[in-house]
Amino acid sequence: MPDTVQFPMRFGSSSGQPVTRRDGIAKVTGTATFAADNAPANLLHAVYVSAAIARGTVTSMDVEAAKAHPGVVEVYTPDNVPPLPGDASSKPFMFAFRFEPLQDNSVRYANQPIALVLAETLEAATEGARLLAPKYAAETPRIGLDGNAPFEIEGGGFGLPGTTVHGDVEAGHAAAEASVDLTYETPEQYHNAMEMHAVVAEWDGDHVVLDVPSQALVMSCAAYGYYLGIPAENVTIRCPYLGGGFGSKAALNGPTVLAIHAARLIGRPVKLMLKRDQMFGPVFHRGATRQRVRIGVDGDARMTVLDHESLAVTSSFDDFIESAANASQGIYSAGALRSAHKGVRADVGTPGPMRAPGEASGSAALESAMDEMAEKAGIDPLEFRLRNYAETEPGSGKPYSSKALRECYAQGAERFGWSRRPLAPRQMTDENGMLVGWGMGTALFAAPMFAAKARAVIRPDGTGLVETAAADMGQGAWTVLAQIAADSLGLPLDMVEFRSGASTLPDAGVAGGSGHTATAGGALHAAGQDVVARLAEMATADPDSPLHGAGNATIVARDGRFWVEGDDSRSDGFADILARNGGAEIEGTGGANRPQEAGAAHAMYAHGAVFAEVKVDPDLFQTRVTRLVGAFAAGRIINPKLAESQLMGGMIWGLSFALHEEAKYDMRTGRVVNGDLAGYHVPVNADVKGLEVITVHEDDPYVNPLGIKGVGEIGITGTVGAIANAIWHATGTRIRRFPVRIEDLLAGSR
Ligand code: MOS
Questions:
Q1: For position 8, what pLDDT does the model report?
Q2: Confidence at 598, pLDDT banded by 50, 70, 90
Q3: Could you give the residue numbers annotated as active site?
Q4: pLDDT given for residue 6 in this prediction
Q5: From ligand 1's centre to the CA of 631, what distance in Å?
């Protein structure tokens, strides 16, 4: 970009508008295509056999019977699968997870792929897989938090949280005049995106085209290339739409790589789509945790120590430890802080990132413990949090890039009516005799930014084209990113073509970590500014332009024209400028990455406060969440409608965490007994009432040039604890295991 020109972005024409999802009509009319909708000629269908045990070996399979079934083309077992070129048990990338491409007959978790059948039809592949009828030598599986001895973690890297200590923790404990020492448990949860994991793989020599849902298109090409032994540029991923991801589709998984491998071996395109029950095992989940939270306060209810330890389940063959205790960093101004993690190995699939990894489980425990500490100190839970409000990041002492949490507390409390809350539990009932309780929690999530690139073009007709390999898994990236691009180009939204969802486009980074809008948006903004600056140079240098000789700094781009600010008589249209200067389109590029010095100077988080009302049947202890109010400050909101939708979705996930979701294991076999959407409970519409989202205005000059923080994950944090605290307030019973179940409330009430 010519360094003489600076164009401040004009927000407000597209950005800030509650634009409806641009992919909405395609989605609801069924014209949006997902990976498994693709059916190239000569396609083979793949179905894999899932292990029915969690630990042991496969002793036999009836390959002859499967192969004899009409339509079955090939059966892959450890006896006939050549190894992948890249080592599937290595971890060459940050998002690499170990998997098992049928290399031996061992079983390490239930639902592990143990054979793959290729057939001319899905029906034949399904029947062939059934006919394999595997036999096993089973060993007793180690399941849950107590199935094995805990181990220490060598901290460092993704999924390997270490121990963080600030201040003198022992002195903090010793100085406490009152304290709590509490242990909470959170269960295994499975992402269960509506679209099951799927792939259509078509090879051409040593190039492969993949229709595969991916939250990180360009990064995934490098990973697939590694395992398949081909350069990253030989892998093309097409992923115009995803039916949800939630972290599960950020990394590669074993079944998908196996299907791609099989397509190469057989020399025909192959399609694999997991069945719903196969989503419970090889495609990651949120690992179970047991968290001990110790809080000490002085006589003024100011925290002398916040000491958070977490034990989390990982698999027997890979390391992904839920970073739950890190939720206690960055939030309250305790005199001393400690976050510590341990792992325990179990015979389960490897856990992975799942929406608000770390903070979802961690804040459930932390916000519950904060409520218990406030109760013990005899003060209102909101007042307790305000008294321990962190003006700078605790531990580091860094200033926050912005922090409107006080306003979140105030606006949320006002909207909810928090000031009318009786301090003691079991004080309120409704007209039907239901016990009514009110609880609250603080929401916090980091505001990261990753690296991304984008390309922007102004075409001869004056319209714009922008490209970046972003992923819209339902969060609205297609819409929000196009809004940013339109403003950066000085064009109305409907004059900008937005191309995304293919790895052939510039790398947009990962749609994850609540950083996609800031990251991909930042790159689009930079690319748009670049092309606009080039075009402005062209205009001011053009003797036939009304802007000839105008000082660049006084020019603004708006509605497809350049204007001299404050002088409506001088303007020039994008198309006119190009027409007078050769008629070709003009291109710009841009990238985004957080400058290191900004990362070092400020602590960057989105904040929020969640208030919950529950009604609990005094006899049956059935619990309903009747109101949820969340107030969030997340920097500049590009699209209020979609941001509120994201925050609302997060809060509903929090409700799900608090009351519904839990994978139940059969301790004898290690299988998930509720491994389908009938038995694995998530909230339905009837469970979600009175949900309100407030977005609190926040200007952040440091977080990134656009002032954007993420909204994808923070809604879960705070909500889980708020609901559990409301249940205590209704019933007087504390439940420290999630989800809060009727039987626990019944037992606790006796
Ligand atoms: Mo995620 S768990 O940041 O997709």
A1: 41
A2: low
A3: 713
A4: 34
A5: 22
Q: Is 145 left (phi over 0), alpha (psi -120 to 50) or beta?
A: alpha
**Residue 32 pLDDT:** 93
Contact 297, 179 (CB under 8 A): yes
- Pocket, ligand 1, Cβ cutoff 6 A: 215, 245-247, 250, 353-355, 357, 512-513
Sign of CA dihedral 403, 407, 413, 416: negative
pTM of the model: 0.96
Strand partners, 164: 339
% of the chain beyond a pLDDT of 70: 97
Encode pLDDT of 209-243 as tens digits: 999 999 999 999 999 999 999 999 999 999 999 99
The residue assigned the tokens 């009932």 is 429
Residue with tokens 């390997």: 160
Distance CA 368, CA 335 (A): 20
Q: SS3 for 178?
A: strand
Kindly list the strands in the beta sheet with 198-204, ordered across the sheet, starting from the edge strand earlier in the chain: 72-76, 113-119, 44-50, 270-273, 198-204, 207-211, 235-238
Q: What angle do CA 444, 449, 454 make, to 5 degrees?
A: 145
Mean pLDDT of the chain: 95
Is 124 within 8 Å of 68 (Cβ atoms)?
no
Output the CA 640–ligand 1 centroid distance in Å: 21
Distance 512 CA to ligand 1 centre (A): 4
Percent with pLDDT over 90 in the chain: 91
Cα–Cα dist 731/728, whole Å: 5
Domains and CATH numbers, the chain: 9-32+450-593 (3.30.365.10), 35-140+204-279 (3.90.1170.50), 397-448+600-749 (3.30.365.10)
Residue 513 alpha carbon to ligand 1 centre in Å: 5
Rounded Cα gap, residues 393 and 508, in angstroms: 30
pLDDT at 12 over 60: no
The closest-lying atom of ligand 1 relative to the alpha carbon of residue 513 is 3
Q: Give the ligand 1 atom nearest the CA of 215.
A: 4
**Best residue for ligand 1 mutational test, from 246, 283, 361, 516 (most atoms within 8 Å of Cβ):** 246
